[in-house]
Design goal:
This protein has 219 residues and is α+β, with helices and mostly antiparallel strands. The chain has a single domain, classed as 2-Layer Sandwich (archaeoglobus fulgidus dsm 4304 fold), CATH 3.30.2170. It has five helices and eight strands. An eight-stranded mixed β-sheet has the order 3-2-1-4-5-8-7-6, sandwiched between helices. Strand 6 and strand 7 form a beta hairpin. Helix 2 runs parallel beside helix 3. The longest helix is centred in the middle third of the chain and has 14 residues.
């Protein structure tokens, strides 16, 4: 799969923050995903152990959710763990994994945030610029923003806002289980990002593409 190269990854934390502020202006976060045209959806995850990062991208059919391709990439972890700068820690190994894809997914779901981010450019938004395809962030834990707890039933959702701006939703993917944090990455909007994530859920809390990528990335 061809990617759009936006910058080099060998930068300092202060340079990374400045770059995020520039890139955030390029993110398109109000464009509905054409869900009727989605045939392949990919899950994206990275695991880190002993300063080695392994990226996994798993492509599934949609809506059938059958795995058709799994790609892996492994590199030394190049960047320290700094909240808000995850994409600089995981980006290089993800770019390598994306470049190996033989199938071209219509949408990507990241284990991580999209616009739910202090500078509105979590990993799903940042790498979405490189992919040029609709991307969604699906975070497992609260990062920033205010929200009311959603209802206990499957599909219940509450808006998540930060500084008066709606960034995503807190979504109950299964009845009576902890919610996840859904936000557009790039070339997506909140309603269709939420719907696609929910339609990728089966018996588990996390959407199947992310579950598959998490298992594949395990070190």
């Amino acid at each position: 799969m061809r990617l759009e190269h936006h910058h080099n990854w060998d930068i300092t934390p202060s340079e990374a923050i400045a770059l995020q502020k520039t890139l955030a202006a390029e993110v398109i976060h109000d464009r509905p995903i054409d869900l009727d045209s989605v045939r392949l959806v990919a899950g994206v995850d990275v695991s880190v152990k002993n300063n080695v990062s392994r990226a996994a991208v798993v492509v599934l059919t949609f809506p059938g959710l059958e795995i058709v391709e799994t790609v892996l990439a492994t590199q030394p972890t190049p960047f320290p763990y700094i909240p808000g700068l995850l994409s600089f820690r995981e980006g290089p190994v993800l770019v390598e994994a994306f470049s190996k894809l033989q199938h071209e997914p219509d949408a990507f779901i990241f284990d991580g945030m999209g616009r739910i981010h202090p500078r509105r450019i979590g990993i799903a938004s940042h790498l979405g610029l490189w992919l040029g395809r609709p991307t969604i962030g699906c975070g497992k834990t609260h990062f920033i923003g205010d929200y009311d707890e959603p209802g206990s039933e499957q599909g219940a959702a509450s808006p998540l806002t930060d500084k008066g701006e709606r960034l995503g939703v807190v979504l109950r993917t299964r009845a009576n289980v902890k919610p996840v944090y859904i936000s557009p990455g790039h070339l997506a909007d909140i309603p269709t990002a939420t719907e696609l994530a929910l339609r990728c859920v089966t018996r588990y809390r996390l959407p199947e593409p992310i579950r598959a990528a998490h298992h594949a990335a395990g070190l």
